[in-house]
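User: Second chain of the day. Same drill as before.
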Amino acid sequence: MAIPVEIEVRGVLRPDREAKIERAIMHAWQDWLDNPQRAMYSRWPRTRANMVFERIADRLQEEFSGDPSVQFHFEDETIR
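Assistant: Same format as last time:
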């Protein structure tokens, strides 16, 4: 596994991108909270986590749709 170098990461995660990530996460949680069927899926915390993760994936793609230097790779049950 690669070890990130802080200065390189900070160069990629500029404040504008950091704001997009934060917005995507906040909107994903709001999607979960606004879901009228949420109570049906509240038995297992892992289910909630998976559903919010799915919403984060969608919201990140929305936020970064205008950024040509950002690419999403969906594999091994995660986003890269």
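The first strand starts at residue 74 and ends at 75.

User: Great, on to the next one.
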